[in-house]
Amino acid sequence: MKFVLKLLCVSLAVASLAGCTVTNEGSSSPTSETNLTSALTTAGDGLYVTTDAGIYELQTVFPDSANLFYTDVNTKQRIFLCANPNCTHADESCPSYISTPSTMFPPMLLRVGDQLLVVFSEATDSSNPYAMLMNMDGSDRRTVFELSSNQYIQGGFCTTGNDLYFDLYEIGEDGDITYQLWYANFESGICEKVMDLGSGDSHYSLCDCTEDMLCLNYISPEGISYCMYDPQSNIIQEPFYVDNSASGNSLVRDGYLFALNEQNNSVQRISLTDNEEKSATFTVKESFGAPSMRYLFDGNLMITETQMEPDDNSYDMCAYILDFETGDCTEFTLQTPYNNRPVYVLTTIGDLCYVATDYTTYTPVSISEDGTVSNFDYVANIYAFVTKQDYVNSNSSGYQMVDDAFE
Fold first, then answer.
1. What span, in angstroms and rounded, lies between the C-alpha atoms of 162 and 170?
2. What are phi and psi of 190, to 5 degrees?
3. Which residues contact 271 (CB under 8 A, 6 or more apart)?
4. 353 forms bridges with which residues in the sheet?
5. For each of the chain's 407 residues, which pLDDT tens digit applies?
6. Nearest CA to 64 among 117, 142, 126?
7. How would you classify the pairing of strands 352-362 and 345-349?
8. Rounded to whole angstroms, how far apart are CA atoms 63 and 85?
9. How far apart are CA 394 and CA 398, in angstroms?
10. Which terminus has fewer CB within 10 Å in the chain: N or C?
11. At 397, is the secondary structure helix, strand, or coil?
12. DSSP string of 8-30, one letter each residue
């Protein structure tokens, strides 16, 4: 029996949008007073958790389960989060092992303070969506909140101290969909709705945060707008940007809003903290088009463009890196051999980028209690570190390859 890894990518697709409603009339205030104990930060994208010393990730290796991995930035080694000798990492005796029966995708991995948070975003036959908090070594696991079976976590997570803000949507008995902002405090055990975010095709979504404010985008048939929300006063401010583009090609990451203008081949960048605006232009290569944005690091972007091949419906891709501080547009040529696509930055740690240069297939072994031996195909990235400058310069000789636990 073969098992192929499925990766969960959390994204928001928006098309033909502009406009905003800024009143939160009818919203419910928190039942307990919210006091921000430290600056708000993003809890992560659900895929990688970065610390000063290394990177955590959660991947499916064996059926109905996931495993925690840790990559040390100094030793360049990727290991199971487990110190048990001769461990197969295939059952709950292993501290890296997390049971995920009946789930379609691995749970999301986030960071709250100095702890890991594993979020099970889907309801199954045996559980509702819930979150499990643990120490950085995988110990002391405990459920910190559980939702109803008709509630579905969207994927926006911001944290401060032991507090977590996230958004979800709820399907009513009549099939109507309502969107909500929720708050959880892991010391007190509180988990409650903060306010309604709209319903149907007109609603807010949580997309980022600054030191003391959350950033929401408002989606409706008329458009998409970006607004700041103050958790202390429970007030949504007037929109600071309205996306009037035909494609709705805008995104918020790392404290910045980026808006792509296909007419003049430029991107506008707006700081969420002080509304400072910068712009940069990019090159459109001959016979290429459909530019798309991907966030890199330090407030900069990658622009990808595609070229369709009419014979077989395949397409080529080129990429450029935009530096908003210098205004530079640099062509990027690092590609993955298996599909000739740009080598993407998965996360950063200090001055280093964590990238996947290729992929390979490993065949880990699982031994059940009755001695039955099972083999599974695990499709895994081949990881490397590369400095930010070597990445921008497309310097493949700068790769610092990672030794994987399966090698």
1. 25
2. -75, 135
3. 255, 256, 277
4. 348, 386
5. 333 332 323 232 222 223 333 333 333 333 344 556 678 999 999 999 999 999 999 998 888 899 999 999 999 999 999 999 988 898 888 999 999 988 877 899 999 999 999 999 888 888 899 999 999 999 999 999 999 999 999 889 999 988 999 999 999 999 999 999 999 999 888 999 999 999 988 999 999 999 899 999 998 887 899 999 999 999 999 999 998 776 678 999 999 999 999 889 999 999 999 999 999 999 999 889 899 999 999 999 999 999 866 666 677 899 999 999 999 999 999 999 988 899 999 999 999 999 999 999 888 776 666 667 677 788 889 999 999 999 999 999 999 999 998 87
6. 126
7. antiparallel
8. 23
9. 9
10. N
11. helix
12. --------S--------TTPPPP
Token output for 195: 């306010």
Residue type, 241: Y
* Residue 210 amino acid letter: T
285 token code pair: 């290569």
> Which own/partner pairs from 367-376 qualify as long-range (CB within 8 Å, at least 24 positions apart)?
367/88, 367/90, 374/1, 376/1, 376/2, 376/3, 376/61, 376/62, 376/63
Burial of 346 (0-12, 13-18, 19+ CB in 10 A): middle
pTM of the prediction? 0.86
